[in-house]
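Subject: complex prediction, re-run

Hi both,

The earlier run crashed halfway through, so I resubmitted it with identical inputs.
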Amino acid sequence: MDALIDASLKALHLLFSGDMALWEIVGISFRVSLLALLIATPPAVLLAFVLAYGNFPGRRLIIALFSTLLSVPTVVIGLTLYLILSRQGPLGEWHLLFTQNAMIIGQIALAFPMLVSIGHSALQAADRRAWETARTLGASHLRALLTIIYEVRFGLLAAVLASFGRIISEVGASMMLGGNILHHTRNIPTAIALETSKGEFAQGIALGMVLLVMAATLNVLLHHFQGKGFVGS
Amino acid sequence: MKKLLSTLLLASAFLCGVVYADDKPANMTLKMATTTSTENSGLLTDLLPKFEKESGYSIQVIAVGTGKALKMGEDGDVDVVLVHAPAAEKEFVEKGYGDKRYPVMYNDFIVLGPDADPAGVRDTKTAPESFAKIAEKQAIFISRGDDSGTDKKEKQLWETAGIKPAGDWYREAGQGMGKVIQMAGELEGYTLADRGTWLAGVDKSPLKIVHEGDKDLFNPYGVIAVSQTRYPDINHTGAQAFIDWIVSAKGQQAIADFKINGTPLFTPNADKPATAK
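This time it finished cleanly. Structure:
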Protein backbone atom coordinates (compact mmCIF):
# COMPACT_ATOMS: atom_id res chain seq x y z
CA MET A 1 0.00 0.00 0.00
CA ASP A 2 2.85 2.34 0.88
CA ALA A 3 4.34 1.79 -2.54
CA LEU A 4 1.10 2.84 -4.20
CA ILE A 5 0.73 6.00 -2.12
CA ASP A 6 4.38 6.83 -2.60
CA ALA A 7 4.16 6.43 -6.38
CA SER A 8 0.96 8.48 -6.52
CA LEU A 9 2.49 11.35 -4.54
CA LYS A 10 5.54 11.39 -6.77
CA ALA A 11 3.21 11.31 -9.76
CA LEU A 12 1.33 14.39 -8.55
CA HIS A 13 4.61 16.16 -8.05
CA LEU A 14 5.69 15.30 -11.60
CA LEU A 15 2.41 16.53 -13.02
CA PHE A 16 2.48 19.89 -11.34
CA SER A 17 6.20 20.56 -11.50
CA GLY A 18 5.77 21.19 -15.24
CA ASP A 19 7.82 18.19 -16.27
CA MET A 20 8.23 18.95 -20.00
CA ALA A 21 9.03 15.39 -21.02
CA LEU A 22 5.76 14.26 -19.53
CA TRP A 23 3.67 16.95 -21.17
CA GLU A 24 5.30 16.33 -24.52
CA ILE A 25 4.14 12.71 -24.32
CA VAL A 26 0.64 13.90 -23.45
CA GLY A 27 0.72 16.25 -26.46
CA ILE A 28 1.75 13.49 -28.87
CA SER A 29 -1.00 11.25 -27.54
CA PHE A 30 -3.69 13.84 -28.10
CA ARG A 31 -2.40 15.02 -31.43
CA VAL A 32 -2.36 11.51 -32.85
CA SER A 33 -5.71 10.44 -31.46
CA LEU A 34 -7.55 13.65 -32.34
CA LEU A 35 -6.25 13.63 -35.89
CA ALA A 36 -7.18 9.98 -36.29
CA LEU A 37 -10.66 10.73 -35.03
CA LEU A 38 -11.07 13.79 -37.26
CA ILE A 39 -10.11 11.80 -40.32
CA ALA A 40 -12.15 8.72 -39.45
CA THR A 41 -15.39 10.33 -38.32
CA PRO A 42 -16.85 11.86 -41.54
CA PRO A 43 -16.53 8.74 -43.74
CA ALA A 44 -17.58 6.50 -40.86
CA VAL A 45 -20.74 8.50 -40.20
CA LEU A 46 -21.53 8.53 -43.91
CA LEU A 47 -21.10 4.77 -44.10
CA ALA A 48 -23.22 4.31 -40.99
CA PHE A 49 -25.90 6.44 -42.64
CA VAL A 50 -25.79 4.39 -45.83
CA LEU A 51 -26.05 1.22 -43.78
CA ALA A 52 -29.01 2.55 -41.82
CA TYR A 53 -30.95 4.11 -44.69
CA GLY A 54 -29.83 2.24 -47.75
CA ASN A 55 -31.32 -1.06 -48.77
CA PHE A 56 -28.91 -3.16 -50.73
CA PRO A 57 -27.73 -6.78 -50.68
CA GLY A 58 -24.93 -7.50 -48.19
CA ARG A 59 -25.98 -4.69 -45.89
CA ARG A 60 -26.45 -6.96 -42.88
CA LEU A 61 -23.19 -8.71 -43.62
CA ILE A 62 -21.31 -5.40 -43.58
CA ILE A 63 -22.94 -4.44 -40.28
CA ALA A 64 -21.95 -7.79 -38.79
CA LEU A 65 -18.44 -7.35 -40.16
CA PHE A 66 -17.97 -4.00 -38.46
CA SER A 67 -19.33 -5.35 -35.19
CA THR A 68 -16.82 -8.18 -35.44
CA LEU A 69 -13.96 -5.76 -36.05
CA LEU A 70 -14.72 -4.24 -32.65
CA SER A 71 -13.34 -7.38 -31.05
CA VAL A 72 -10.07 -7.51 -32.96
CA PRO A 73 -7.19 -7.02 -30.51
CA THR A 74 -5.29 -3.80 -31.09
CA VAL A 75 -2.00 -5.68 -31.51
CA VAL A 76 -3.49 -7.64 -34.40
CA ILE A 77 -4.44 -4.38 -36.14
CA GLY A 78 -0.95 -3.16 -35.29
CA LEU A 79 0.74 -6.26 -36.67
CA THR A 80 -1.31 -6.27 -39.87
CA LEU A 81 -0.49 -2.63 -40.57
CA TYR A 82 3.13 -3.22 -39.56
CA LEU A 83 3.46 -5.86 -42.26
CA ILE A 84 1.83 -3.55 -44.78
CA LEU A 85 3.92 -0.51 -43.89
CA SER A 86 7.25 -2.28 -43.38
CA ARG A 87 9.90 -1.76 -46.03
CA GLN A 88 9.18 -5.37 -47.03
CA GLY A 89 5.44 -4.72 -47.27
CA PRO A 90 3.31 -3.41 -50.13
CA LEU A 91 3.46 0.19 -48.89
CA GLY A 92 7.10 0.07 -47.78
CA GLU A 93 8.01 2.76 -50.29
CA TRP A 94 6.09 5.30 -48.28
CA HIS A 95 8.43 5.02 -45.30
CA LEU A 96 5.62 5.33 -42.81
CA LEU A 97 6.61 2.75 -40.24
CA PHE A 98 7.74 4.21 -36.91
CA THR A 99 6.23 7.63 -37.57
CA GLN A 100 3.26 9.45 -36.07
CA ASN A 101 1.43 8.99 -39.36
CA ALA A 102 1.66 5.23 -38.95
CA MET A 103 0.13 5.59 -35.49
CA ILE A 104 -2.64 7.75 -36.89
CA ILE A 105 -3.39 5.12 -39.53
CA GLY A 106 -3.49 2.45 -36.84
CA GLN A 107 -5.85 4.48 -34.70
CA ILE A 108 -8.10 5.24 -37.65
CA ALA A 109 -8.32 1.48 -38.26
CA LEU A 110 -9.30 1.03 -34.62
CA ALA A 111 -11.78 3.89 -34.41
CA PHE A 112 -13.52 3.31 -37.73
CA PRO A 113 -15.44 0.11 -36.91
CA MET A 114 -16.57 1.55 -33.59
CA LEU A 115 -17.76 4.78 -35.22
CA VAL A 116 -19.65 2.81 -37.83
CA SER A 117 -21.17 0.35 -35.37
CA ILE A 118 -22.34 2.78 -32.71
CA GLY A 119 -23.12 5.42 -35.34
CA HIS A 120 -25.28 2.92 -37.18
CA SER A 121 -27.22 2.10 -34.01
CA ALA A 122 -27.80 5.79 -33.39
CA LEU A 123 -28.91 6.55 -36.95
CA GLN A 124 -31.08 3.47 -37.05
CA ALA A 125 -32.98 4.73 -34.02
CA ALA A 126 -33.93 7.97 -35.82
CA ASP A 127 -37.37 8.29 -37.30
CA ARG A 128 -37.24 7.55 -41.02
CA ARG A 129 -39.99 10.10 -41.48
CA ALA A 130 -37.56 12.86 -40.57
CA TRP A 131 -35.67 12.03 -43.75
CA GLU A 132 -38.82 11.80 -45.83
CA THR A 133 -40.22 15.02 -44.41
CA ALA A 134 -37.01 16.88 -45.08
CA ARG A 135 -36.94 15.59 -48.64
CA THR A 136 -40.60 16.46 -49.21
CA LEU A 137 -39.95 19.95 -47.94
CA GLY A 138 -37.43 20.34 -50.71
CA ALA A 139 -34.18 19.71 -48.82
CA SER A 140 -31.26 18.47 -50.86
CA HIS A 141 -29.79 15.07 -50.01
CA LEU A 142 -26.98 16.74 -48.13
CA ARG A 143 -29.32 19.03 -46.24
CA ALA A 144 -31.55 16.08 -45.32
CA LEU A 145 -28.51 14.10 -44.18
CA LEU A 146 -27.43 16.96 -41.92
CA THR A 147 -30.93 17.09 -40.50
CA ILE A 148 -30.80 13.41 -39.58
CA ILE A 149 -27.34 13.79 -38.11
CA TYR A 150 -28.62 16.67 -36.03
CA GLU A 151 -31.54 14.55 -34.86
CA VAL A 152 -29.26 11.82 -33.54
CA ARG A 153 -26.36 14.02 -32.51
CA PHE A 154 -26.15 12.63 -28.98
CA GLY A 155 -25.88 9.08 -30.20
CA LEU A 156 -23.17 10.09 -32.68
CA LEU A 157 -21.36 12.06 -30.02
CA ALA A 158 -21.35 8.95 -27.88
CA ALA A 159 -19.84 7.03 -30.81
CA VAL A 160 -17.11 9.64 -31.20
CA LEU A 161 -16.30 9.70 -27.48
CA ALA A 162 -16.28 5.92 -27.17
CA SER A 163 -13.92 5.71 -30.14
CA PHE A 164 -11.70 8.37 -28.65
CA GLY A 165 -11.58 6.38 -25.43
CA ARG A 166 -10.52 3.31 -27.35
CA ILE A 167 -7.72 4.89 -29.34
CA ILE A 168 -6.26 7.27 -26.74
CA SER A 169 -5.78 4.37 -24.33
CA GLU A 170 -4.62 1.59 -26.62
CA VAL A 171 -1.05 0.44 -26.43
CA GLY A 172 -0.72 -2.47 -28.88
CA ALA A 173 -0.98 -0.75 -32.23
CA SER A 174 0.88 2.39 -31.14
CA MET A 175 3.78 0.33 -29.81
CA MET A 176 4.13 -1.69 -33.01
CA LEU A 177 3.55 1.10 -35.52
CA GLY A 178 5.17 4.00 -33.69
CA GLY A 179 8.03 2.14 -32.06
CA ASN A 180 7.80 4.17 -28.83
CA ILE A 181 10.42 6.68 -30.02
CA LEU A 182 11.11 9.44 -27.51
CA HIS A 183 9.94 12.91 -28.71
CA HIS A 184 8.30 11.36 -31.78
CA THR A 185 6.03 8.40 -31.23
CA ARG A 186 6.02 7.90 -27.48
CA ASN A 187 2.46 8.44 -26.36
CA ILE A 188 0.80 8.00 -22.98
CA PRO A 189 0.07 4.25 -23.20
CA THR A 190 3.45 3.25 -24.64
CA ALA A 191 5.21 5.48 -22.13
CA ILE A 192 3.31 3.80 -19.29
CA ALA A 193 4.35 0.41 -20.65
CA LEU A 194 7.97 1.53 -20.83
CA GLU A 195 8.10 3.22 -17.43
CA THR A 196 6.45 0.19 -15.85
CA SER A 197 9.04 -2.09 -17.40
CA LYS A 198 11.76 0.08 -15.91
CA GLY A 199 10.11 0.07 -12.49
CA GLU A 200 9.45 3.83 -12.69
CA PHE A 201 5.95 3.47 -11.36
CA ALA A 202 5.49 7.15 -10.41
CA GLN A 203 5.94 8.26 -14.01
CA GLY A 204 3.50 5.58 -15.10
CA ILE A 205 0.88 6.61 -12.59
CA ALA A 206 1.30 10.29 -13.45
CA LEU A 207 0.57 9.54 -17.09
CA GLY A 208 -2.35 7.35 -16.09
CA MET A 209 -3.73 10.28 -14.11
CA VAL A 210 -3.49 12.60 -17.08
CA LEU A 211 -5.40 10.09 -19.15
CA LEU A 212 -8.11 9.84 -16.51
CA VAL A 213 -8.41 13.60 -16.07
CA MET A 214 -8.73 14.05 -19.83
CA ALA A 215 -11.35 11.32 -20.02
CA ALA A 216 -13.29 12.94 -17.20
CA THR A 217 -13.11 16.33 -18.95
CA LEU A 218 -14.45 14.81 -22.13
CA ASN A 219 -17.33 13.18 -20.35
CA VAL A 220 -18.26 16.35 -18.53
CA LEU A 221 -18.16 18.02 -21.93
CA LEU A 222 -20.50 15.39 -23.30
CA HIS A 223 -22.97 15.98 -20.51
CA HIS A 224 -22.72 19.69 -21.10
CA PHE A 225 -23.57 19.24 -24.77
CA GLN A 226 -26.38 16.88 -23.97
CA GLY A 227 -27.81 19.63 -21.83
CA LYS A 228 -31.39 18.74 -21.26
CA GLY A 229 -30.86 15.39 -22.84
CA PHE A 230 -33.36 13.58 -20.67
CA VAL A 231 -36.57 12.02 -21.79
CA GLY A 232 -39.09 14.82 -21.44
CA SER A 233 -42.72 14.93 -22.37
CA MET B 1 -22.61 19.10 -32.83
CA LYS B 2 -21.26 21.99 -34.84
CA LYS B 3 -19.95 23.59 -31.70
CA LEU B 4 -18.28 20.37 -30.65
CA LEU B 5 -16.76 19.88 -34.07
CA SER B 6 -15.30 23.32 -34.13
CA THR B 7 -13.98 22.84 -30.61
CA LEU B 8 -12.33 19.59 -31.71
CA LEU B 9 -10.93 21.23 -34.81
CA LEU B 10 -9.52 24.10 -32.84
CA ALA B 11 -8.04 21.82 -30.22
CA SER B 12 -6.33 19.63 -32.78
CA ALA B 13 -5.08 22.56 -34.80
CA PHE B 14 -3.61 23.88 -31.60
CA LEU B 15 -1.96 20.60 -30.76
CA CYS B 16 -0.56 20.12 -34.24
CA GLY B 17 0.96 23.54 -34.29
CA VAL B 18 2.23 23.75 -30.76
CA VAL B 19 3.33 20.29 -29.83
CA TYR B 20 4.92 18.90 -32.88
CA ALA B 21 7.44 20.59 -35.04
CA ASP B 22 9.53 17.95 -36.73
CA ASP B 23 11.16 20.14 -39.31
CA LYS B 24 14.39 18.19 -39.60
CA PRO B 25 15.01 17.10 -43.19
CA ALA B 26 14.62 13.35 -43.60
CA ASN B 27 18.29 12.72 -44.25
CA MET B 28 19.27 14.26 -40.93
CA THR B 29 17.05 11.85 -39.08
CA LEU B 30 18.32 8.45 -38.22
CA LYS B 31 16.46 5.42 -36.93
CA MET B 32 18.23 2.96 -34.68
CA ALA B 33 16.89 -0.32 -33.39
CA THR B 34 18.53 -1.36 -30.17
CA THR B 35 18.09 -3.55 -27.15
CA THR B 36 16.07 -2.74 -24.09
CA SER B 37 19.27 -2.99 -22.03
CA THR B 38 20.89 0.08 -23.60
CA GLU B 39 17.67 2.08 -23.26
CA ASN B 40 16.45 0.89 -19.84
CA SER B 41 19.88 1.39 -18.29
CA GLY B 42 19.80 5.05 -19.28
CA LEU B 43 22.95 4.81 -21.41
CA LEU B 44 21.34 6.10 -24.60
CA THR B 45 19.64 8.98 -22.84
CA ASP B 46 23.09 10.03 -21.74
CA LEU B 47 24.96 9.26 -24.95
CA LEU B 48 22.70 10.29 -27.81
CA PRO B 49 22.27 14.00 -27.03
CA LYS B 50 26.06 14.28 -27.22
CA PHE B 51 26.10 12.67 -30.65
CA GLU B 52 23.17 14.76 -31.84
CA LYS B 53 24.83 17.95 -30.69
CA GLU B 54 28.12 17.19 -32.39
CA SER B 55 26.79 15.79 -35.64
CA GLY B 56 23.52 17.63 -36.18
CA TYR B 57 21.71 14.36 -36.71
CA SER B 58 18.54 13.57 -34.86
CA ILE B 59 18.47 9.95 -33.79
CA GLN B 60 15.27 8.03 -33.10
CA VAL B 61 15.56 4.97 -30.92
CA ILE B 62 13.35 1.91 -31.06
CA ALA B 63 14.15 -0.30 -28.08
CA VAL B 64 13.21 -3.94 -28.47
CA GLY B 65 14.85 -7.32 -27.97
CA THR B 66 17.97 -8.07 -30.01
CA GLY B 67 16.11 -10.60 -32.17
CA LYS B 68 13.49 -8.09 -33.16
CA ALA B 69 16.04 -5.28 -33.59
CA LEU B 70 17.96 -7.40 -36.09
CA LYS B 71 14.72 -8.27 -37.87
CA MET B 72 13.97 -4.56 -38.26
CA GLY B 73 17.41 -4.16 -39.78
CA GLU B 74 16.85 -7.11 -42.13
CA ASP B 75 13.62 -5.53 -43.31
CA GLY B 76 15.26 -2.15 -43.86
CA ASP B 77 12.94 -0.46 -41.39
CA VAL B 78 15.83 1.09 -39.46
CA ASP B 79 19.20 2.50 -40.52
CA VAL B 80 21.45 1.09 -37.83
CA VAL B 81 21.31 -1.57 -35.10
CA LEU B 82 23.08 -1.65 -31.73
CA VAL B 83 22.72 -5.13 -30.25
CA HIS B 84 24.35 -7.83 -28.18
CA ALA B 85 24.24 -11.30 -29.70
CA PRO B 86 27.56 -11.93 -31.51
CA ALA B 87 26.42 -15.12 -33.28
CA ALA B 88 23.25 -13.51 -34.64
CA GLU B 89 25.18 -10.36 -35.59
CA LYS B 90 27.70 -12.42 -37.54
CA GLU B 91 24.89 -14.09 -39.44
CA PHE B 92 23.26 -10.70 -40.08
CA VAL B 93 26.44 -9.43 -41.75
CA GLU B 94 27.14 -12.69 -43.60
CA LYS B 95 23.70 -12.68 -45.15
CA GLY B 96 24.36 -9.20 -46.45
CA TYR B 97 21.87 -7.30 -44.33
CA GLY B 98 24.59 -5.22 -42.76
CA ASP B 99 28.02 -4.00 -43.85
CA LYS B 100 30.25 -4.72 -40.94
CA ARG B 101 30.04 -5.27 -37.22
CA TYR B 102 31.94 -2.79 -35.10
CA PRO B 103 32.60 -3.71 -31.49
CA VAL B 104 31.40 -0.93 -29.20
CA MET B 105 31.48 -1.98 -25.58
CA TYR B 106 30.83 -4.83 -23.22
CA ASN B 107 29.53 -5.61 -19.82
CA ASP B 108 28.59 -8.94 -18.35
CA PHE B 109 25.61 -11.04 -17.48
CA ILE B 110 24.85 -11.95 -13.90
CA VAL B 111 22.67 -14.55 -12.26
CA LEU B 112 20.17 -12.92 -9.91
CA GLY B 113 18.28 -14.71 -7.20
CA PRO B 114 16.60 -14.26 -3.84
CA ASP B 115 18.90 -13.44 -0.95
CA ALA B 116 18.02 -16.75 0.74
CA ASP B 117 19.34 -18.57 -2.36
CA PRO B 118 17.22 -21.73 -1.99
CA ALA B 119 19.01 -23.46 -4.85
CA GLY B 120 22.46 -22.81 -3.42
CA VAL B 121 23.73 -21.03 -6.52
CA ARG B 122 26.29 -19.01 -4.59
CA ASP B 123 28.41 -22.15 -4.12
CA THR B 124 28.76 -22.78 -7.85
CA LYS B 125 31.77 -21.86 -9.95
CA THR B 126 30.34 -21.44 -13.45
CA ALA B 127 27.10 -20.21 -14.93
CA PRO B 128 26.05 -23.57 -16.43
CA GLU B 129 26.69 -25.09 -13.01
CA SER B 130 24.41 -22.47 -11.42
CA PHE B 131 21.72 -23.25 -13.93
CA ALA B 132 22.07 -26.99 -13.25
CA LYS B 133 21.58 -26.31 -9.53
CA ILE B 134 18.42 -24.25 -10.21
CA ALA B 135 17.01 -26.99 -12.43
CA GLU B 136 17.87 -29.69 -9.92
CA LYS B 137 16.12 -27.83 -7.07
CA GLN B 138 13.30 -26.80 -9.43
CA ALA B 139 13.65 -23.26 -8.09
CA ILE B 140 11.59 -20.70 -9.98
CA PHE B 141 13.49 -19.29 -12.95
CA ILE B 142 12.12 -16.43 -15.02
CA SER B 143 13.24 -16.51 -18.62
CA ARG B 144 12.98 -13.53 -20.96
CA GLY B 145 11.58 -15.84 -23.60
CA ASP B 146 11.65 -13.03 -26.16
CA ASP B 147 14.61 -13.97 -28.38
CA SER B 148 16.56 -11.01 -27.02
CA GLY B 149 20.34 -11.08 -26.63
CA THR B 150 19.94 -12.05 -22.98
CA ASP B 151 17.46 -14.75 -23.96
CA LYS B 152 19.84 -16.17 -26.54
CA LYS B 153 22.61 -16.21 -23.95
CA GLU B 154 20.36 -17.94 -21.44
CA LYS B 155 19.38 -20.66 -23.93
CA GLN B 156 23.04 -21.17 -24.72
CA LEU B 157 23.87 -21.60 -21.02
CA TRP B 158 21.14 -24.21 -20.58
CA GLU B 159 22.56 -26.03 -23.56
CA THR B 160 26.06 -25.97 -22.09
CA ALA B 161 24.60 -27.32 -18.87
CA GLY B 162 22.97 -30.11 -20.87
CA ILE B 163 19.52 -29.27 -19.60
CA LYS B 164 16.28 -28.67 -21.46
CA PRO B 165 14.48 -26.37 -19.04
CA ALA B 166 10.83 -27.25 -18.71
CA GLY B 167 8.27 -27.54 -15.98
CA ASP B 168 6.35 -25.35 -13.64
CA TRP B 169 9.53 -23.81 -12.21
CA TYR B 170 10.70 -22.49 -15.59
CA ARG B 171 8.63 -19.52 -16.63
CA GLU B 172 8.97 -17.65 -19.89
CA ALA B 173 7.86 -14.08 -19.43
CA GLY B 174 8.19 -12.73 -22.95
CA GLN B 175 9.05 -9.30 -21.55
CA GLY B 176 11.93 -6.84 -21.36
CA MET B 177 14.79 -7.08 -18.88
CA GLY B 178 13.48 -4.57 -16.35
CA LYS B 179 10.12 -6.30 -16.21
CA VAL B 180 11.69 -9.74 -15.82
CA ILE B 181 13.86 -8.56 -12.92
CA GLN B 182 10.68 -7.23 -11.27
CA MET B 183 8.90 -10.52 -11.84
CA ALA B 184 11.78 -12.56 -10.45
CA GLY B 185 11.73 -10.26 -7.42
CA GLU B 186 8.02 -10.70 -6.84
CA LEU B 187 8.12 -14.47 -7.36
CA GLU B 188 11.40 -14.93 -5.43
CA GLY B 189 12.93 -16.61 -8.43
CA TYR B 190 16.19 -16.61 -10.33
CA THR B 191 16.96 -14.96 -13.61
CA LEU B 192 19.79 -14.06 -15.94
CA ALA B 193 20.26 -10.31 -16.38
CA ASP B 194 22.68 -7.91 -17.99
CA ARG B 195 24.60 -5.87 -15.48
CA GLY B 196 23.57 -2.54 -17.00
CA THR B 197 19.85 -3.01 -16.47
CA TRP B 198 20.49 -4.52 -13.05
CA LEU B 199 22.57 -1.57 -11.83
CA ALA B 200 20.01 0.89 -13.16
CA GLY B 201 17.23 -0.72 -11.13
CA VAL B 202 19.12 -2.32 -8.24
CA ASP B 203 17.60 -0.12 -5.56
CA LYS B 204 14.10 -1.23 -6.54
CA SER B 205 14.75 -4.96 -6.37
CA PRO B 206 14.92 -7.42 -3.46
CA LEU B 207 17.15 -9.72 -5.54
CA LYS B 208 20.87 -10.24 -5.09
CA ILE B 209 23.64 -11.24 -7.47
CA VAL B 210 24.17 -14.93 -6.77
CA HIS B 211 26.67 -15.66 -9.50
CA GLU B 212 28.97 -13.45 -11.57
CA GLY B 213 32.36 -13.07 -13.12
CA ASP B 214 33.05 -16.14 -15.24
CA LYS B 215 33.95 -15.93 -18.88
CA ASP B 216 30.70 -17.59 -19.97
CA LEU B 217 28.94 -14.40 -18.97
CA PHE B 218 30.80 -11.97 -21.22
CA ASN B 219 28.32 -9.66 -22.96
CA PRO B 220 29.68 -7.71 -25.94
CA TYR B 221 27.71 -5.10 -27.88
CA GLY B 222 28.15 -4.38 -31.56
CA VAL B 223 26.87 -1.75 -33.95
CA ILE B 224 26.03 -2.47 -37.59
CA ALA B 225 24.85 -0.15 -40.37
CA VAL B 226 22.11 -1.69 -42.47
CA SER B 227 23.31 -2.49 -45.98
CA GLN B 228 22.89 0.24 -48.53
CA THR B 229 23.30 -2.26 -51.34
CA ARG B 230 20.12 -3.92 -50.19
CA TYR B 231 18.24 -0.73 -49.30
CA PRO B 232 19.52 2.15 -51.47
CA ASP B 233 17.28 4.77 -49.86
CA ILE B 234 18.34 4.03 -46.33
CA ASN B 235 20.13 6.74 -44.34
CA HIS B 236 23.48 5.06 -44.66
CA THR B 237 25.54 8.23 -44.30
CA GLY B 238 23.81 8.95 -41.01
CA ALA B 239 24.29 5.40 -39.81
CA GLN B 240 27.98 5.57 -40.61
CA ALA B 241 28.28 8.95 -38.91
CA PHE B 242 26.83 7.43 -35.76
CA ILE B 243 29.15 4.42 -35.94
CA ASP B 244 32.17 6.65 -36.52
CA TRP B 245 31.18 8.69 -33.52
CA ILE B 246 30.48 5.86 -31.10
CA VAL B 247 33.77 4.08 -31.88
CA SER B 248 35.73 7.36 -31.79
CA ALA B 249 37.71 8.40 -28.74
CA LYS B 250 34.93 10.83 -27.82
CA GLY B 251 32.13 8.29 -28.07
CA GLN B 252 34.12 5.69 -26.22
CA GLN B 253 34.94 8.16 -23.46
CA ALA B 254 31.24 9.01 -23.15
CA ILE B 255 30.46 5.32 -22.63
CA ALA B 256 33.19 5.01 -20.01
CA ASP B 257 31.89 8.12 -18.25
CA PHE B 258 28.36 6.78 -17.95
CA LYS B 259 27.95 5.72 -14.35
CA ILE B 260 25.13 4.92 -11.99
CA ASN B 261 25.91 5.54 -8.33
CA GLY B 262 29.57 5.75 -9.26
CA THR B 263 29.66 2.36 -11.00
CA PRO B 264 30.36 2.31 -14.73
CA LEU B 265 27.82 0.17 -16.58
CA PHE B 266 29.69 -0.57 -19.78
CA THR B 267 33.35 -0.86 -20.77
CA PRO B 268 34.19 0.57 -24.20
CA ASN B 269 36.16 -1.79 -26.47
CA ALA B 270 35.98 -0.37 -29.96
CA ASP B 271 39.75 -0.08 -30.24
CA LYS B 272 40.41 -3.81 -30.42
CA PRO B 273 39.96 -4.69 -34.11
CA ALA B 274 40.46 -2.16 -36.89
CA THR B 275 37.60 0.28 -37.11
CA ALA B 276 38.59 2.29 -40.18
CA LYS B 277 36.20 2.33 -43.08
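The radius of gyration of chain B is 21 Å.

- K.
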